[in-house]
Amino acid sequence: MGLGVPREPVEIKEFIRVVRARLGGGADVDYDSLAVWAFNRLPKYLWDEWKGELKLRGITWQKFLRILRMHTSDIIEWALYDKLGWVELVERLVALLERYSSAKR
Asked: Distance between CA 82 and CA 40 in Å, rounded?
């Protein structure tokens, strides 16, 4: 799949951290998940970067969101805890998108 690694969206990462801080402290998986999905900022950014190729592969916006949801914990690790690098996160997302792609090249 011809999906490159886009520039790391540090502004989105910071937004996610601000949202999480406003939700309150403590270890709470629901708040972590809510923060990374707030306003779909990361999915929108990636969709804008990849939508041409994804559409050719039969992946709609709705399917794209369902696929990304499978990697919520990875997104949390990248955005909130710096335990996963951007390139590794993108590689994991691309691998799953390839699995669910309808057009094999």
From this structure: 20
Q: Per-domain residue ranges for the chain?
A: 10-99
* Global pTM value: 0.92
Q: Are 37 and 72 in contact (CB under 8 A)?
A: yes
34-44 residue pLDDT tens: 999 999 999 99
Instruction: Name the helix (H) or strand (E) containing 81.
Output: none
* Contacts for 70 with CB less than 8 Å, ≥ 6 apart: 96
30-77 per-position pLDDT tens digit: 999 999 999 999 999 999 999 999 999 999 999 999 999 999 999 999
